[in-house]
Amino acid sequence: MSTTSALPRQPRRLGPRGAAWFDRGLALGLTGLSVLSGVAAGSLAWIGLGLLQCAPLWWRRRFPVAVYAAVAAASALQVLVLDMPVFSQLAYPVAVYSVARYTSTVPGALALVVGLVAAATAAVDWTSPYVPPNDHPLQQVVSYATTIGVIVLAAWALGTLGRTRAAYVDALRTHAEQVAREAEQRAELAASDERARIAREMHDVVAHGLSVMVVQADGARYAAAKDPDVATTALGAIAATGRESLGEMRRLLGLLRSEETGTRPQPGLDDLAGLLEQARADGLPLTVRLPDPLPAVPTGTGLVVYRVLQEALTNVRRHAGPVRDVEVVVDAEPGGLVVRVTDDGRGAAAGSSGSSGSSGAGGSGRAGGGLGLVGMRERVRAAGGTLATGPRGGGGFEVVARVPV
């Protein structure tokens, strides 16, 4: 998933180049009109003030405080030079807007306060030529000051609103980017978990298939000299097991390559009978007790029970040595299933060659370089259950898994 495609459309704004050209046009336009008005009035003061007040707007986005200071200083100079409003004073509210828009709250507030004081000062300056010195035209001064103050206040309010809106939009965009990144990370973690699950499935398939083939090959080798028919049957079982294991491994590798779900259903409780029949055909002396009928359980629970039983039987073939009886029990208890696989083989004496992993509660596991017990424990733990493995007191080995439903 692309982060850019997941984000909401950003409000239309001028780009850096467009903003620069806008500021240049604004500065040149106001300066040009101020100079023309000064030429029309025949006043060099108007022309000079037009240049001093309007030209700094060229840099109003890059240096808003400095531009405001320059415009405010030129406006203060106007009080000393002229006693009437001029066209170039339009630069002052633009400068106030720029400070409020492109800086923080404090510079904007200071510009507003200075602007309101300047409004009162300008009102007194502009009305004084028309009123005798001893009169106090408070009403006229207040009217002028209010008008100018409203213009300054509006410029400050628009700038502040623009700044807060831009900050809000940026915060929304940052949040959307964060949400998109988190979604991508969750998807990657889910894919990683799925690959790990497929890798465990592949380990179970390969280990089971190879153990069956080794047992059949040993039997065929011993029987070849005495009974060729038995050897032929064993070789056929080896070939069938190899083809089935290769097909299953190709399917799992295809999942890893395509990152799609397989079309073949995962094994469950209904497949236990076939697994046990195959174990009997491989020569394991099984005593089996399954619930009749098999309980209806979720697909994930059935898969965990199947894989635990498959791995336990594989460990018996590989590590138990000669066995007289292997007992397989699946019991349905309130709230879950219990899987118990016990054998009367070498038990703890197989510690140097068995699958790796600790026992969990109840004993020490068969240690070694494999991943059988570790894989079983991970599966059962992921399903919320418990696994206990270890040697039996009277000899042999036991695997007990409790899987909640």
TrEMBL record:
Residues 300-405 form the Histidine kinase/HSP90-like ATPase domain. InterPro entries: DUF7134, HATPase_C_sf, HATPase_dom, Sensor_HK_TwoCompSys, Sig_transdc_His_kin_sub3_dim/P. It comes from the Bacteria. Keywords: ATP-binding, Kinase, Membrane, Nucleotide-binding, Phosphoprotein, Transferase, Transmembrane, Transmembrane helix, Two-component regulatory system. Residues 347-356 have a biased composition (Low complexity). Its EC number is 2.7.13.3. Residues 342-370 are annotated as: Disordered. Residues 357-370 have a biased composition (Gly residues). The chain crosses the membrane at residues 65-87, 99-121, 141-159. It is an enzyme of class 2 (transferase). It catalyses: ATP + protein L-histidine = ADP + protein N-phospho-L-histidine. GO terms for cellular component: membrane. Coiled coil: none annotated. One of its GO terms (molecular function) is ATP binding. PANTHER family: NITRATE/NITRITE SENSOR PROTEIN NARX-RELATED (PTHR24421), NITRATE_NITRITE SENSOR PROTEIN NARQ (PTHR24421:SF10). This is histidine kinase. It comes from Nocardioides zeae. The lineage of its organism: Bacteria, Bacillati, Actinomycetota, Actinomycetes, Propionibacteriales.
